[in-house]
Amino acid sequence: MAGSTPLDKSPLLSPTSSRSVTETVNGSHKFVIQGFSLAKGMGVGKHIASDNFTVGGFQWAIYFYPDGKNPEDNSTYVSVFIALASEGTDVRALFELTLVDQSGKGKHKVHSHFDRSLESGPYTLKYRGSMWGYKRFFRRAALESSDYLKDDCLKINCTVGVVVSAVDCPRLHSIQVPESDIGAHFGMLLDNMEGSDINFEVAGEIFHAHKLVLAARSPTFRSKFFDGSDEDKVDIIVTDVEPKVFKAMLHFIYRDSLMVDVELETPSSSSVTSVSNSLTAKLLAAADSYGLERLRLMCESHLCKDISVKTVAEILALADRCNASDLKAVCLRFAAENLAAVMQSDGFEHLKENCPSLQSELLKTIAGCEEDCSSGGKSRSVWAQLSDGGDTNGRRVRQRT
């Protein structure tokens, strides 16, 4: 048999796509007509024009006819139009005219193309001077006795939406922008001490830094260096933090990240005190002291993973001292949901003896209210738990949710 040769087939090209987007470019103009009574009698077909305003690349103007535009109406109505005031051909647009109610009642008279379906689509203006509007916009006698006229003044608001179409073509190639590396660069500045102008002594250790960087990141440092007594100092002794905490704080200030030592710190499962003595807890206190809000939140997030029945009371007290509101809220919720077990912890005993205000806040969380709790029976039974470690019969009290 004679063999057949298959037809050569060209490889398929990747499909392409495009999208046509039609939308309006909107703009507004406010036209105030002062001396309405003096404008009357200027004649039918004669108008007062606003200043030109630009929307969608075209010039527009508002025309107000005090004696009307239509001779047949014999000045019974005022007329208002929006006119194309620049050269243009087949300009398609939506319009809105609003006669402002000056009584403050908000009962404006609005004629609008917007927010409604148009049977024939947007209005088309063929040439310069083309207009859209109303020959019988308002009966003049009614207008003169209405809230639209105040102190012989009318206010007209106009909105024009010019219809534009564009083809959106997806790009065949893209350029990847790497993540911000500003932290790495500032970190190098800290590491090599280039240009440093301030030295900190912390428990015998010296840390070199840059006043402008510290002031830009911390309102406390900014106040010290530019508004306080440390303005001219180049050597400052720090007594409120440990060296390792100060080093971690500088790391954040320059790099906007936590040190590896903090990141790798694991939740404690032993004693409660180890939580408050952790590097993260001490860094949280430093963040509060030096006004480092982002560092405070990062520490709160890290400590949140450490919350357990054994640690929640201590972390709650720490959060309260350091103004860590998000961490405090999580602790209160956790304690309320695990009240019976938390009450048996050593940390809870410390909380009862030393932090009565937190005890009150815990009660509010349990009761599920933000205002002061009432003195009803259920609230008193919870108070009994907080004071005595259980209800009067020794039973576990179901929490309120």
Automatic annotation (TrEMBL):
Domain (MATH) ranges: 26-160
Sequence intervals crossing the membrane: none
InterPro entries per record: BACK_BPM_SPOP, BPM1-6, BPM_C, BTB/POZ_dom, MATH/TRAF_dom, SKP1/BTB/POZ_sf, TRAF-like
Entries under Pfam families matching the protein: BACK_BPM_SPOP (PF24570), BTB (PF00651), MATH_2 (PF22486)
Residue span of region Disordered: 1-21
Known pathway: Protein modification; protein ubiquitination
One GO term of the biological process aspect: cellular response to salt stress
Domain BTB: 196-262
Signal peptide: none
Function: May act as a substrate-specific adapter of an E3 ubiquitin-protein ligase complex (CUL3-RBX1-BTB) which mediates the ubiquitination and subsequent proteasomal degradation of target proteins.
Family in the record: Belongs to the Tdpoz family.
Protein name according to UniProt: BTB/POZ and MATH domain-containing protein 4
Organism: Rhamnella rubrinervis
